[in-house]
Amino acid sequence: MFTFTDDERASLGWMRGIAQDPQGRAVLVGLTFEETDFYITYRRKYLTPGRDRDREHQRRYLELHRKHEIARLEVLGREIHLRNESPIYQ
Question: Is 27 domain-assigned?
Fold first, then answer.
């Protein structure tokens, strides 16, 4: 099981990439806890310089990456919409 590092938490928070699941656990936006666990574990293990990729699980990682990015961009889009509709910003 993974735990977000302080740097990951800060970066993901800034990019609107982290959320809480129904059990109150930190997860990547758009992913379940189990999907987040796989994604973060894969990224740490295989996407560091000098490491060979795990070809067997690469497709799942890429699918989860796409799912997460779509959800993250939707969050950003809603945030931008709210800012543009708010009288504070006009």
Answer: yes
